[in-house]
């Protein structure tokens, strides 16, 4: 996908990632530390993480198409390099969501699950979720700098 009604698809698709990944990350953390929330939200977290995983390469491909049309710059290169890493963060977030789903199913079947395993998983989910959120911020910040950096540096008027 290259354009949508004349707009570069990347400009539109990036907003999907900016919403889905942090939302999945925040809900994953809540599910990791609060069993009542996990019982209600774990499948939503899994769906959001899966959607973010699917949308990440589509957004990156649309970004590569756009990069070829706007020309090189150091800021765009930084943004592209950071954007290429998001697939790893999306994959880690999906794996964390799958682990939460496994924990949920396991808790429903075996009520005598070891508490230590729960906290190890919660720690991993928190670390992965925070890392994914930070990476979304870093990519977005570099994209904003590549797009608006020169215009925002000059005073108007």
From TrEMBL:
<protein>
    <recommendedName>
        <fullName>DUF2231 domain-containing protein</fullName>
    </recommendedName>
</protein>
<feature type="domain" description="DUF2231">
    <location>
        <begin position="6"/>
        <end position="151"/>
    </location>
</feature>
<feature type="transmembrane region" description="Helical">
    <location>
        <begin position="86"/>
        <end position="105"/>
    </location>
</feature>
<feature type="transmembrane region" description="Helical">
    <location>
        <begin position="12"/>
        <end position="34"/>
    </location>
</feature>
<feature type="transmembrane region" description="Helical">
    <location>
        <begin position="41"/>
        <end position="60"/>
    </location>
</feature>
<keyword id="KW-0472">Membrane</keyword>
<keyword id="KW-0812">Transmembrane</keyword>
<keyword id="KW-1133">Transmembrane helix</keyword>
<dbReference type="InterPro" id="IPR019251">
    <property type="entry name" value="DUF2231_TM"/>
</dbReference>
<feature type="transmembrane region" description="Helical">
    <location>
        <begin position="117"/>
        <end position="137"/>
    </location>
</feature>
<dbReference type="Pfam" id="PF09990">
    <property type="entry name" value="DUF2231"/>
</dbReference>
């Amino acid at each position: 996908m290259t354009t949508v009604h004349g707009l570069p698809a990347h400009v539109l698709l990036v907003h999907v990632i900016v919403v889905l990944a942090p939302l999945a990350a925040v809900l994953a953390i809540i599910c990791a530390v609060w069993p009542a929330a996990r019982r209600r939200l774990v499948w939503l977290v899994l769906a959001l993480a899966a959607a973010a995983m699917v949308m990440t390469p589509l957004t990156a491909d649309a970004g590569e198409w756009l990069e070829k049309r706007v020309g090189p710059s150091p800021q765009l290169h930084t943004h592209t390099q950071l954007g290429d890493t998001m697939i790893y963060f999306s994959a880690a977030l999906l794996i964390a969501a799958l682990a939460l789903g496994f924990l949920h199913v396991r808790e429903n079947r075996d009520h005598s699950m070891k508490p230590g395993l729960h906290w190890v998983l919660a720690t991993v989910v928190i670390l992965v979720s925070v890392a994914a959120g930070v990476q979304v911020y870093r990519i977005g910040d570099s994209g904003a700098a590549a797009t608006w950096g020169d215009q925002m540096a000059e005073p108007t008027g």
